[in-house]
Design brief:
mainly alpha; 8 helices; single chain
Length: 210
């Protein structure tokens, strides 16, 4: 662990994720500090690969770069550690029964540990080594459970929300995947909408992500 801390968590290879986190929080990049984070929040190499791949599955490469391509996975790691999307809020005592072993002492959830186990189970083995179709099916099964009718708060909703936030506050997501106009100059009450039109970056949270 000490070797990994010295070589990984505090190094510049997290800069991209830190920059996205700073944008989302509205603070300078320098404020996002790695050395102050709890050692338990340091991801394993496998978890970094996992969350980068999961980010790419949620928002794959099209005519623009995918979420995994631009460092959203590292953003998610840092955002979870900093408590975005309520990720450091204590989990309710009557929450999902399989969460108990992933709680910290303060009651909050170790999201990456939980996600790693869930995806391995749904892939019937090592999620990282499964073929692309099985990985996608495993993630779709988890997503379907999280957003099923009547489902209560679910850890995957937090993680997915951070993936979307990281992507759509990035340069690629905010200005290339979405339309962006700094000063529209006028108000148009009624505009034609076609399937080829991109959503607007000023209201990306209203996009239907399926």
């Amino acid at each position: 662990m000490a070797e990994r801390q010295a070589a990984g968590w505090s190094r510049r290879d997290f800069f991209g994720g830190a920059a996205l986190l700073a944008l989302a929080m509205g603070v300078p990049t320098a404020v996002v500090r790695y050395s102050d984070l709890d050692p338990s929040d340091e991801p394993s190499d496998r978890q970094r690969v996992m969350i980068a791949g999961v980010s790419q599955l949620v928002l794959p490469r099209t005519d623009t770069a995918g979420a995994g391509d631009i460092g959203v996975g590292d953003f998610v790691i840092l955002a979870l550690a900093h408590g975005l999307e309520g990720s450091r809020t204590p989990v309710a005592a009557d929450a999902m029964p399989n969460l108990a072993s992933y709680r910290r002492r303060d009651g909050s959830l170790r999201h990456l540990d939980w996600l790693e186990t869930q995806l391995d189970q749904r892939a019937a083995g090592d999620f990282q080594k499964a073929d692309p179709a099985r990985r996608l099916a495993a993630l779709q099964a988890l997503d379907g459970e999280a957003y099923a009718e009547g489902a209560r708060s679910h850890p995957w909703r937090t993680i997915k929300g951070l993936i979307l936030t990281g992507y759509y506050t990035s340069e690629v997501g905010g200005s290339k995947e979405l339309n962006y106009e700094l000063v529209p100059g006028r108000w148009d009450p009624d505009l034609p909408l076609t399937p080829a039109m991109h959503a607007w970056s000023s209201d990306w949270t209203a996009v239907d992500f399926g």
